[in-house]
Amino acid sequence: MKKIRIEKQIKCSADSLWELFADVTRSDWVPFANEIVLENNVRTFKMDGVGEIKEKIIEKDQANKSLTYSVIKSPAPLNHHLAKVTVLEDNNFSKLVWTSEVEPDEFEKLISDGMKSSIEMIKKILE
Fold first, then answer.
1. Would you state the pLDDT for residue 21?
2. For residues 87 and 92, what is the distance between their CA atoms, to the nearest angstrom?
3. Residue 66 in contact with residue 85, Cβ under 8 Å?
4. Around Cβ 12, how many Cβ atoms within 10 Å?
5. What is the mean pLDDT of each run of 10 residues along the chain (127 residues)?
6. pLDDT for res 47
């Protein structure tokens, strides 16, 4: 199993960044996502050129500004995926800490690249 950890300073308040993640159906920061639908703690991404991805929301912790989720259906044959996004105060900015576990190992780059692309979209929206 591969573990990915990305830490990035975002030039906005922690509250603004958390609002983006806390709205688990917001799709403008997810590359290629047309729509995200939530049903029974499972969000379904409808994505151009990718198809459908389903993630189970395991925990949304408003007080600690963290979201834990797991891919449960994907075009990629994942055996395991667990991710956590945490938003921290960083002086007048925010710090995004995004971790993922993925198996099989060969999907590490795909997941990591997706996280990095999403962060770039977030920066365009919030900075």
1. 97
2. 13
3. yes
4. 18
5. 98 97 94 91 89 95 98 94 96 96 96 96 96
6. 84
User: Terminal CA-to-CA distance of the chain, rounded, Å?
Assistant: 34
> How far is 66 from 87, CA to CA, in rounded Å?
6
- Residue 29 identity (one-letter amino acid): W
What residues have CB less than 8 Å from 120, skipping those under 6 apart? none
Domains and CATH numbers, the chain: 2-126 (3.30.530.20)
- The amino acid at residue 19 is E
Give which of 53, 112, 59 is closest to 84, Cα–Cα: 59
Fill in the amino acid letter for 14.
A
Residue 104: asked if its preceding bond is cis (omega within 30°), the reply is: yes
Global model pTM greater than 0.70: yes
